[in-house]
Amino acid sequence: MEPVHTWTEDGLCWIEIHRPEKLNALDRATLAALARAVREGSAREGVRVLLLTGAGEQAFAAGADIAEMAVQDAAGIRALMDLGKETTRLLESAPQPAIAVVNGYALGGGCELALACDLVLASDRAQFGLPEVDLGVLPGWGGTQRLERRVGYGRARQMVLTGRRIPAPLALEWGLCEALVPAESLRDEAAKLARELAAKDPGALAAAMRALHAASALPLEEGLRLETELFVELFQRPEREAAVERFLQKRR
Predict the structure, then answer these.
(1) How far apart are CA 105 and CA 167, in angstroms?
(2) Whole-angstrom Cα distance, residue 39 to residue 28?
(3) Residue 231, φ and ψ in degrees, nearest 5
(4) I want to staple 13 with a disulfide (CB 3.0 to 4.6 A). Which of 27, 47, 100, 215 is the partner?
């Protein structure tokens, strides 16, 4: 059975990690299929939003497949780390918004996948964590870099150094997710949010995401210059003129 399932409806591209019997653990084949799904989905004409989730009710993704990881040599583990980083990079750099739909455990690499998405919608049963320190390693797919940008210095260190799991209410308080919903309505609420985003101007969304991503990578002055350049580019488009006219019509 394919480890990743995809389907598209109404401009929404769903990408589902499908190893429920393994809590959607991320082995090499699953990561490769996931990277391919993100690459192809983000390039598909008419796709306005990506939604990443896991099969079943227990897990979004419970991390890397430890059994596979344990037998790797240095070259093999480096290749696995590179593949995980490529997958998270594809999510983060997609021209469409990417929503992580976290339906259970988001641990280790699963948490890192969620961190690479633009928005995280979680069920009230979700748990987040980076337990790699308990396996004698550290987060290797971007967790040490992206986590602090979401939750701040102290909380990032607490998660990485203790390996503790963060339950859904605390995850919301810390900013690991943007909203919590009952597990039984998670996908419906995710689709509702995705349709709201899909109704926005895709060029404006892509530019906004580019500026937001730059905020954590560029000095303030460079980020402000990029923001201005993107604004000017967007301002000259006919889509912007039509949007302004619609806005003014509503006020008349």
Answers:
(1) 9
(2) 16
(3) -60, -45
(4) 47
Per the prediction, the chain carries an average pLDDT of 95
Helix boundaries (H) for the chain: 28-43, 66-70, 74-93, 109-115, 143-151, 153-162, 168-174, 186-198, 202-215, 220-235, 238-251
Looking up tokens 């069920």, which residue turns up?
123
How confident is the model at residue 247, as a pLDDT? 80
Q: What are the backbone dihedrals phi and psi of residue 53, each rounded to the nearest 5 degrees, phi first?
A: -150, 180
Helix axes 143-151, 153-162, angle to 10 degrees: 140
pLDDT tens digits for 112-154? 999 999 999 999 999 999 999 999 999 999 999 999 999 999 9
Residue 132 annotated as catalytic: yes
Cβ–Cβ < 8 Å for 47, 11: yes
For residue 151, the cross-strand partners are none
Please tell me which residue in 21, 112, 221, 222 is annotated as part of the active site.
112
Q: pLDDT band at 249, cuts 50/70/90? A: confident
Candidates 2, 86, 132, 221; catalytic one = 132
Q: For 4-198, give the CATH class.
A: alpha beta
Domain(s) labelled CATH 3.90.226.10 in the chain stretch across: 4-198
Residue of 126, 133, 178, 136 lying closest to 160 (CA atoms)? 133
Does the annotation mark 92 as catalytic? no
∠ CA 95-100-104, rounded to 5°? 170
Asked if residue 23 has pLDDT above 80, the reply is: yes
Q: For the chain, what's the residue count?
A: 252
Q: Which amino acid is at 162?
A: T
Residue range(s) of every CATH 1.10.12 domain in the chain: 202-251
Per-residue pLDDT, averaged over 179-203, amounts to 96
